[in-house]
């Protein structure tokens, strides 16, 4: 389905989608956004996937999307990830989903793997932070926190909010408006980056930085798949490679994409997700 690359990567050809979106196995996908995003990020993916016969659930984490919670009041990862936890708790025994996380949404996926492994058919990390125990060490922070150093100092790249006071760490953060297209959407259609500029919200950075997980016996039983975003300016290629090496997934793929493949390479991403559904079977 694609050209083989070095070290087992597969380049997904967006033009080869023709028959791929007709599912041989219906699956239930649960899609998790990154910091500042929301369920809206996945609108192209949801539309095509549902029209091809799959179930697609897009969640807003606490303070994201249409959730009205002030991000500056979300100070723990448990609070931030509660919508996903409650959704997985609501699944009946025997139900399984394919859980997909983008960017910082990978932390939500890792948390779910430890807590609800038996309800997850496969976990897909899309240009995402994939850390087995979260930010448990300085090395984890180096690998999983965006490297935007070539674009300036942190206060030149991000707007920060300090709900607890200037003498405390920031409680929320957002890439400055004038840099959003350059950093996050540089390969995406102008219409999508314009939409994103209208919908992005400050994200609860203190909550994300507190993300640490305890391993369970099911931690390595869930099949994990990593899809690299090869031209990412937020989570750099060397960071993605480091996380893949540290916690090797069962499969690694690559998309020629910016940090937002749901905009810049939607058909390639859909082809990949359908491949996961076929490989890992239908919902029970």
3D structure, described in words:
The chain is of the alpha/beta class and 284 residues long. The chain contains twelve helices and ten strands. The strands form three sheets. It has a six-stranded parallel β-sheet, with helices on both faces. A two-stranded antiparallel sheet has the order 1-2. The protein has a two-stranded antiparallel ribbon with strand order 7-8. α5 crosses α10. The longest helix is centred in the C-terminal third of the chain and has 15 residues. The radius of gyration is 18 Å and the shape is globular. The two termini are 27 Å apart. The N terminus is likely disordered.
Specify the biggest β-sheet: 6 strands, parallel
Low-confidence parts lasting 5 or more residues at pLDDT below 50? 1-20
- Give the number of helices: 12
Number of E-state strands: 10
The helical percent reads 25-40%
What is the succession of H and E elements? EEEHEHHEHEHHEEHHHEHEHH
Looking across the biggest beta sheet, what order are the strands in? 4-3-5-6-9-10
Overall pLDDT, averaged?
A: 91
Give the DSSP E fraction (strand runs of 2 or more residues): 15-25%
Category by helix and strand content: alpha/beta
The value of Rg in angstroms is 18 Å
- Specify the overall morphology: globular
Distance between the termini: 27 Å
Q: What is this entry, summarized?
A:
This protein is 34% helix and 17% strand. It has 284 residues and is of the alpha/beta class.
Kindly list the characteristics that best describe this protein.
284 residues, single chain, 34% helix, 6-stranded parallel beta sheet, two-stranded antiparallel ribbon, disordered N terminus, alpha/beta
């Amino acid at each position: 389905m694609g050209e083989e690359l070095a070290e087992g990567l597969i380049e997904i050809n967006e033009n080869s989608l023709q028959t791929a979106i007709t599912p041989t196995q219906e699956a239930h996908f649960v899609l998790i956004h990154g910091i500042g995003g929301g369920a809206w990020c996945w609108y192209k993916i949801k539309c095509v996937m549902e029209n091809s016969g799959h179930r697609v659930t897009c969640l807003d984490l606490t303070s994201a999307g249409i959730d009205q919670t002030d991000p500056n009041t979300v100070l723990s990862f448990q609070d931030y990830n509660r919508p996903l936890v409650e959704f997985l708790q609501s699944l009946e025994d025997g139900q399984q989903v394919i859980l997909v996380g983008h960017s910082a949404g990978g932390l939500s996926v890792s948390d779910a793997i430890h807590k609800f492994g038996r309800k997850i058919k496969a976990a897909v990390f899309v240009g995402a932070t994939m850390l087995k125990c979260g930010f448990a060490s300085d090395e984890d922070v180096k690998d999983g926190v965006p490297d935007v150093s070539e674009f300036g100092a942190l206060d030149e790249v991000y707007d920060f909010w300090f709900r607890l006071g200037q003498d405390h760490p920031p409680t929320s953060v957002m890439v400055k408006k004038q840099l959003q297209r350059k950093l996050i959407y540089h390969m995406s259609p102008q219409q999508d980056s314009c939409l994103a500029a209208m919908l992005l919200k400050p994200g609860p950075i203190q909550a994300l930085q507190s993300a640490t997980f305890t391993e369970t016996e099911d931690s390595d039983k869930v099949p994990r798949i990593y899809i690299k975003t090869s031209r990412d300016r937020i989570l750099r290629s060397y960071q993605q490679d480091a996380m893949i090496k540290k916690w090797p997934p069962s499969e690694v793929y690559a998309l020629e994409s910016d940090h937002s493949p749901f905009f810049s390479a939607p058909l390639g991403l859909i082809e990949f997700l359908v491949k996961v559904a076929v490989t890992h079977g239908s919902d029970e």
